[in-house]
Specification:
The complex is a heterodimer of chains A (about 110) and B (about 110).
Chain A: E1 4-6, E2 11-14, E3 19-25, E4 32-38, E5 45-51, E6 54-58, E7 61-66, E8 71-76, E9 85-92, E10 99-101, E11 105-110
Parallel strand pairs in A: 2-11
Antiparallel strand pairs in A: 1-3, 3-8, 4-5, 4-9, 6-7, 7-8, 9-10, 9-11
Chain B: E1 4-7, E2 10-13, E3 19-25, E4 31-38, E5 42-51, E6 54-57, E7 64-70, E8 73-78, E9 87-94, E10 104-105, E11 109-113
Parallel strand pairs in B: 2-11
Antiparallel strand pairs in B: 1-3, 3-8, 4-5, 4-9, 5-6, 7-8, 9-10, 9-11
The chains are: A mainly beta (about 110), B mainly beta (about 110).
Amino acid sequence: QKEVEQDPGPLSVPEGAIVSLNCTYSNSAFQYFMWYRQYSRKGPELLMYTYSSGNKEDGRFTAQVDKSSKYISLFIRDSQPSDSATYLCATALYNFNKFYFGSGTKLNVKP
Amino acid sequence: DADVTQTPRNRITKTGKRIMLECSQTKGHDRMYWYRQDPGLGLRLIYYSFDVKDINKGEISDGYSVSRQAQAKFSLSLESAIPNQTALYFCATSDPRDPYNEQFFGPGTRLTVL
């Protein structure tokens, strides 16, 4: 079983839609949770990070972690064509020695 | 100029050949990483180095070796390339003073082994 599971999509939505991206993880010891965004032919870039359970909001983006169900979510409000990318969730232990990445969900926002 | 650069950006080689992928960074970070990305499998860690004298295996190190020539340089070698090493390879860096250890990725090297 992979440490982090993520639906690969692709997910296609109209501009302005609310997008929900999700991951599950297996190790209850994970404490840090990240979302990276990867544009085509580019390396991933950190989008958001959270520690333990709860929500974190940054503009149109909200990251949510439910440690009881080992579930990670990213919500995008008022989605834009520029949000079209692959989104990767990632987890890490307290010491951050290694990251465990999901396989990525490809999102296409249609104008 | 890019903070993390990788050379070459694309490479096609044949089975059995020795290949070296190079990574350089100008961010001044001590920590450097090599990942490979495959469709459906995501990013998987090959090797990581927390300083010039520190080298650690990741989850898929078999068939690979690395060299940390300086704080700014970390190279990945495939001693005898095989077709299932065809993938997109990323180098990344991070700053140990960053509480979230944000990973800064290079643009990637697309390697094809025939």
